[in-house]
Amino acid sequence: MANKKISELTSASTLTGTEEFAVVQSAETKKSTLTVLQHYIVNTLEPTNLTVVSGGGTIDLGDSTYNNAEIIVLSWSGGSDTIELTLPDATTSTNTNRAFRIITDSTYTTNTKADLTPIAGQTLDGSSDAYRINKAYEGIKVFSNGVEWFIIQKKAS
Predict the structure, then answer these.
(1) How far is CA 147 from the centre of its chain?
(2) Which of 1, 7, 111, 123, by CA, is between 20 and 30 Å from 55?
């Protein structure tokens, strides 16, 4: 088996997480397990920073920029205003069974508002109404079941 190409190897059956595999780290081949790798994947979040601007109108969270966002950190720039954040289409394969978080930083006040709104014909917690974000350090986590969006967690300072 030493001279087989990767494409010629037999497919693995159900994995338990304890199987060893090769990893190249700093030009050295080492061994690891899926359990070790999963620890790093599960316990890290890469934030997507989004500065919303007074008079900015609508921001489409269905834009490809946000396809892989797990957490969106909102900053506010400008005077008092309300902007709209439109949720992506809950029915697409990209968003079915997807959850993501939106949090605000210290630049938000009660006079700076972001309305999280489902697209036409869809709902957020069974309603077509927007969820208003207007506090510093506020957070919301939403989930799509492939039909609609659910608020599964929210936090306000």
Answers:
(1) 18
(2) 123
